[in-house]
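Reproducibility note. Readers wishing to regenerate the assembly model reported in the main text can use the exact inputs given here. Chain order matters: entities are listed in the order in which they were concatenated for prediction.
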Amino acid sequence: MVVMEKEEIPHPAPPLKLQKPPEPEPRQPDMISVEDVDFSYSAHQVLYDVNLEIPSRAVTAFIGPSGCGKTTLLRCFNRMNDLIDGARITSGSIELDGYNINAPDVDVVDLRRRVGMVFQKSNPVPRSIYENVAYGLRVLGATKKSAINEAVEKSLRAAALWDEVKDRLDSSAYGLSGGQQQRLCIARALAVEPEVVLMDEPCSALDPIATAKVEELIYQLRENFTIVIVTHNMQQAGRCSNYTAFFYLGRLIEFGSTSKIFSNPSERKTEDYITGRFG
Amino acid sequence: MSKSRRARNRIAQTTAFWLFRFATYAILAAATYIFLDIGIKGSRTLFNTQGPFINVPFFTQGPQTLFVFEYEGKKYTLSDREFRAWKAQHPVEVEATSVAYSAGGVWPCIVGTGLLVVGSMIFALAVGICSAIYLNEYSQNTRSIRLIRIAILNLAGVPSIVFGLFGFGLFVIFFHWNVSLLAGWFTLGLMILPAIITGSEESLRAVPNGLREGSLALGATKWQTIRKNVLPYAIPGILTSSILGIGRVAGETAPIMFTAAYALRDEMPWQVQHWTDFVFQGVMALPYHIYVVSSKIPQNEYTERMQYGAACILLLLVFAIALASIVLRERTRRRLSW
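Running the prediction on these inputs yields the following structure tokens for the assembly.
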């Protein structure tokens, strides 16, 4: 059922109003590969036989109606589901760069440093902007002041927040607007130099202007990071992703380049969903 | 809606309102009466109408026996020590009534209660916070954890005299600690442990989960997350819940009457032969002193004076400790608020 589209097909006309249609790019080697994954919360199965290859240095969007399992799959990539009682992968495997992330000898702390995450609800800590970004470096054992300063500036610049906050690094992160807080969380995730950044509906609580800024940021970040983003907003997937995976009722229905999914989906369900016939 | 029904509704509404209001104000009235009664009668003991205005011996001396007698048409009320000095100067026989514990002061009791509160709170907070962290952050909802929670709930309902007997049996007799501070600390600490655990767990639960996930997702270990991103925000709540514990520890008589309290002791707690003896000595304590003085028969105006004085001091002491922890809480909260 799953269609793996390796080569790009130029699309004739975008079906949705894309602000910036992503240009076709050569597909990069795979970063995360998901093989035959079944996932359950206690007795309740939420993912069925998911197979997926996520390319590196690209933005991959997960779309689908609520409860289809896209956030669950995303949280499998950094084993955030370990925190939930009874949640587990019942069969199949997930590999990051060729290593099984659920193998018993994998250090989950190390995995989470390599696979960063930005949450639906921005969650800065009630401390200064500087401390929020420096936190990740400190838990990794960084103590040199100059190195931390440098990394904080670099991450804030990468998150397109530096110019807005450089004069008030010591004031509380709670004084920032919602969009700024979310970009601060992105900066915080980037500070520990992960390879993959997972984003769980990062713009769901933001207004259109803040959303546009975050989307632009996401699109730029693909040059250095592998990004996986869960979104409810199909225009957003269209605007800022290179690849799109459509989930429905715990199954991966279709995966391919964003332009292909939005212009010429191979599955009837995908077409119905993106044209708004259900979901 | 018919007119009669509207009228009925209005009556029900008014009745309910006044019932609730009356209940609330009744509590206020009772509290006011208790505080005023103890405050007024106690302040007669605590303060003087002349001189330094504060009854200095009451704050600095231990309890003594009071001697009341008449001599050459004059009425004397002298403490044990003063009476002996007076007798040395006046070599005559006088008919003196002695009233136990009604002269002198309560200084050793204040010190003893302070020591008991500090020691048992340190013990209870250390153990309580650790187990609250384990229960809330580490443990999964298994059968044994549910059993532990039930045990904690049951422990909270155990009467304090039972704790006293338990401490007497285990610490005083079995461990051979005798009547000692150490036995009192553990007995009182175990008594308030359930309250501390429950309060700490509630404060930990109030910390948003996003803070934990955000920290873990950055590659922090569980302990780093708890230490830097959970505990600092839970501490104000934990302090608030421990205020109640302080009140109970300072005021309970039953747990210490067999384990830590002496009715009368002449040495102060720091007058020990060797510093290791410090934790193995019994102390005088305010609530036990109030109990001892009140159970002395006959009662008269002299015993009443001592009872109300001690009760007033106990209230002030609890109030002062609670105030200190509120100030501490506000400071931590201002530093780390979200």
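We highlight two features of this model. Confidence is low (pLDDT under 50) at residues 9-18 of chain A. The CA atoms of residues 32 and 245 of chain A lie 14 Å apart.
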